[in-house]
Amino acid sequence: MQNNDAKINLTDDQTINLFIIGLMDEKGIQYGDEPYKSDIFQELKTRLLTELDRSLVAALPDDKLDEFSKVVAQDGKIDPDVVAKAVLDAGVDVEKVAGETMAKFKDIYLGEDTAAGAKAENEEA
């Protein structure tokens, strides 16, 4: 079942900002007026948005990915509106992809990457 009525806006600054601030809090970095904390915040936000875009593009079916690649090849850059349209047209489950991406981003940032942990446990056994 496709969810073409999804009203998720991945550029919703308030949602993204709250997520990043939460990550910083969990890491022990309090967001404040200090310039370095603002720099960390901006860097994390940029990385998260990039990972969300990558994950959504990776979730495209092969035929839609080919169409998307052609558009990018013509323009030489990736327009967020083109990504959004391709994802919507393909019926990608945006909530699922975004949730998984954000969870993985959090695990990596906090040093809790379960895949890496499981591999290390298997090597010790």
Shape: elongated
Number of strands: 0
Report Rg.
Answer: 17 Å
Report how far the terminal alpha carbons are from each other. Answer: 43 Å
Quickly give the structural class: mainly alpha
The helix-strand sequence is HHHHHH
Q: Beta fraction of the residues?
A: under 5%
Percent of residues in helices: over 70%
Low-confidence stretches: 1-6, 116-125
The pLDDT mean sits at 78
- Total helices: the number is 6
Specify the biggest β-sheet. none
Structure description:
By secondary structure, the protein is mostly helical. Helices cover 73% and strands 0% of the residues. The chain is built from 6 helices and no strands. Helix 1 packs across helix 2, helix 2 packs across helix 5 and helix 3 packs antiparallel against helix 4. The radius of gyration is 17 Å and the shape is elongated. 11% of the residues are buried.
